[in-house]
Amino acid sequence: MGRTQRLRLQRAQQKPAEDYTSSLQNLYVHLHSLGWRNHTHLSAKNYPETGRGLCSKQDTFSPEDELIRLPVGCLITIATLESDNEFKSLFNKDLFDKDARISFHALVACYLMYLKHLQDCSKTSGYAAYLDTLPSSYSTPYFCAIPELQCLPESLLERTVAQNRQIRRYYEIIKNLAGLLNCDGCGKSYDREIWTLAEYKWAYFSVNTRSVYLSSRFLKRQSNHFQTLINGDTNMALAPFLDLFNHSDGVQTTAEIHGQDYVLTLKSLPLAKTKTYEQLFISYGALPNFKLLTEYGFWLKENKHDYFDFSLLDIEHMIKHNKELATQTFHRNIFKFIREHNLHDQMFVHIDDGCSHNLRVVLHLIFKQQAYFPNILNQIAFGDAEQFEDVQPELSYLVAYKIKEYEIFVGELDKLPKLTESGSVARSYLQECIRYLAKFQLTHPAE
Fold first, then answer.
1. b/e for 255-294, b at 16 or more Cβ within 10 A?
2. pLDDT tier at 12 (50, 70, 90 boundaries)?
3. Which end of the chain, N or C, is less surrounded by CB atoms within 10 Å?
4. Calpha distance 386→404 (Å, rounded)
5. What is the CA radius of gyration of the chain?
6. What is the pLDDT of residues 123-158, one digit of tens each?
7. How far apart are CA 111 and CA 238, in angstroms?
8. CA angle 47, 51, 56 (to 5 degrees)
């Protein structure tokens, strides 16, 4: 399952046990110096299914109990960056361009690169202990080898290409802002030698996989140096130690600011109470497996929030591969109408809820309607919903087509001599999609 894949990755990433234990002890000391008291007695531990996670050695938890109370000063926030004068000095504010802004996510990734280089130069940094606890690599499809990417579905490729385009754009902006500045410690230039693309990719996904939501209105800043550089809000933070909590679809948690503390509270559990030394989970949100895989690098078996998306291209390919449908004629105006009215958005199936409204509408327009004039299509598409109940055979064809397609992708991956960890996780995700669609077929059979 997905967590097993994550465990394999963590085993590959982990330093020797004594080194990691030392890093955690150093992090405890650092956070304690900033006011954290660990009143819930949290401790890191390795678990068979997830690898590293958090438990409590002394406490049990029920709904409404606090899991952790971490002083806001322990977090890396916009206030942290604004108070770091040496970091700010790397950016020439006169070069800030409204047409070349970056997200706060991208800027925090740059800050991680900066902190890591300070550590490499043996300069003192309050975040050295935190950096030592970060993974050295990540298992999202973004890090698949090229032969592996060629064996992945279009949806995963599109997401990976979009991530790559965004990361490279932010990286180029950051390099240009650093100009020809050199590090005082090693003498190397930031834009050509220190801040490499590989380093930035690692930093970007460190932020991507480990950040938490934190409204910046609760923070006091010393300045607004980066205000004109950032596009969007600054409502996120890195939370040392807290980010060791793993995700589960079976719990609900809330995060709030209480005074000067960032407080994570348990709202619901599968059982009435946890046990000591039992892994404690939090919720990253009601996320489907596609989101978990592409953003975090893992997936959950039988994820209660999962569903399977279809594209209009899936339907077009299904028509070509279905002997019965391939002989029919489908007017291009119908496909044009669907795209112009965004009916191809939110086309998905859910094991419990069945077929989404938009998918039913699209299947009805393509396979059940002979009319192709826009005014008639408009009346049909936004008319009585009951008329869309007659598309079960076509839906069954579509689901069967995707199962076969994903089986081919898995087979192609199996032909490769060796898979990276990202490739291995992606392969297991495809198998989970096959299982999900097969279960959907059994639950919603064609008449």
1. beeeeebbebbbeebeeeebeeebbbbbbbeebbbbbbbb
2. very low
3. C
4. 30
5. 25
6. 777 788 899 999 999 999 999 999 999 999 999 999
7. 11
8. 50
